[in-house]
Specification:
With 396 residues, the protein is α/β, with parallel strands linked by helices. It has helices spanning 14-22, 29-37, 48-62, 78-86, 105-109, 131-140, 192-202, 210-226, 233-236, 259-268, 272-293, 319-331, 362-370, 382-393, and strands spanning 41-45, 69-73, 90-94, 96-97, 102-103, 116-121, 144-148, 156-157, 160-161, 168-172, 185-189, 312-315, 371-374. It contains 14 helices and 13 strands.
Length: 396
């Protein structure tokens, strides 16, 4: 089978790319975001990690005393740790519960908070962290809360709209996110003092150049075509592209988001609700079938309607079973992924910047061994869903 469903994708029309590139009427993306997220301040940057970097710099200027640590989940995207290090701070990883992919609360309570500046609520795959509990604990210890909604754009939660439930938050517009313009981040906050500090820092951040915007336009043309299941096997067969590779790199670029990408995001935003509805419906069908099978767990799933997962996280019985599931799915045209290759504490270049690593991180290590994700994006068809379920049910 040549058809291969990518792990995540945003449907992009060439007509939207052309309109965003050549229609110079400015889309008021700020007005769209502030209304949708319920925030007073927003900033457009080159990536989600750039957004968290600026947030941490601003929080550092406001903090009293020696606050130079940031709590992050022991299992999360490596870019979260990279943004902490880029801000000149240290990483304090805390173990997670495999059933929720959120922090183990008892482990948070046992931490030494005396030097903690902020805690990252990671909301992995669109599963909301318990913001009320995190915020209460952070307030008790004079720490800030960052609502990392990189994987939750447009999602409503029991604790309010994603992204604005802490002192500051951010979304990602990178490839594979709920709404992708190839790269980009949106920083939001309702904290006026924090916004004043962000204004000062943002003034020194370079704007995106015309050349950068043109380069992104060309990349998005390729992305809009090659992310289609009919063609995705072509880029997926080229290892040099590094598709799906997780890299720790604290030397990432920090610039503004190009005008072209802002216009494109504004054009795509009205489709976000439809995209997320598809993710929710697709996730619900697959999750119910896998849980009924009895061999798999789906973190965050408690029945329909399901969350609009960025990717549907599934826990297999063990690593061997997980790896065989990924291989079997590939044979029927589905790209399942094992996601992050290790726990944060095992990233070798990060070692000098770690604190509080006396835990064995058993929950995070179990997730590294057992977790794989299934595509649920708008390019996934009913036939694709049927093949996923049949393949996993038939796995010996």
């Amino acid at each position: 089978m040549f058809r291969l469903v990518p792990p995540s994708a945003t449907p992009l029309k060439v007509t939207d790319l052309i309109a965003a590139a050549f229609d110079e009427r400015r889309t008021d993306l700020a007005a769209i975001v502030t209304q949708a997220a319920g925030c007073r301040h927003c900033y457009f940057l080159s990536s989600g990690r750039a957004a968290q970097y600026l947030i941490l710099r601003a929080m550092s200027t406001m903090s009293e005393g020696d606050r130079h640590e940031v709590i992050i989940p022991a299992y999360t995207c490596f870019t979260v740790a990279a943004s902490v290090v880029r801000a000149g701070l240290r990483v304090r990883p805390v173990d997670i519960d495999p059933s929720t992919l959120d922090y183990r609360h008892e482990h948070l309570q046992q931490q030494d908070w005396s030097k903690v500046l902020a805690i990252n609520a990671s909301n992995l795959f669109g599963i909301s962290s318990h913001l009320d509990r995190l915020t209460s604990l952070a307030r008790q210890n004079d720490a800030y809360v960052i609502d990392d909604a990189a994987q939750m754009l447009g999602v409503e939660t029991p604790f309010g709209p994603a992204g604005i439930r802490g002192d500051a938050g951010f979304f990602s517009l990178d490839r594979g996110k709920h709404l992708a313009v190839y790269s980009g981040g949106i920083l939001i906050t309702n904290n006026d003092e924090l916004a004043r500090q962000l204004d000062k820092i943002r003034a020194d951040v370079a704007s995106s150049s015309l050349f950068a915007g043109a380069t992104v336009f060309i990349k998005l043309l390729a992305y809009s075509l090659l992310s289609r299941p009919q063609l995705y096997r072509l880029p997926a067969s080229l290892p040099m592209l590094g598709l799906g590779k997780t890299v720790y790199d604290p030397e990432f670029d920090v610039t503004g988001l190009s005008e072209f990408q802002q216009r494109l995001a504004g054009r795509l935003w009205p489709s976000l609700e439809q995209f997320n509805r598809h993710r929710s419906e697709t996730s619900g069908v697959i999750a119910e079938a896998l849980i009924a099978d009895g061999r798999f767990e789906v973190p965050g799933f408690s029945g329909k309607p399901a969350l609009p997962y960025l990717r549907l996280p599934v826990l297999a019985p063990d690593r061997d079973y997980r790896d065989r599931a990924i291989a079997a799915l590939r044979k029927v045209g589905i790209t399942a992924t094992a996601m992050y290759p290790g726990v944060i504490a095992d990233i070798r270049p990060l070692q000098p910047h770690l604190v509080g690593t006396d835990s064995d991180f058993s929950g995070a290590r179990a997730v590294v061994d057992r977790l794989f994700t299934l595509p649920v994006h708008p390019l996934v068809t009913e036939s694709d869903v049927g093949r996923m379920i049949a393949c996993l049910r038939g796995l010996a």
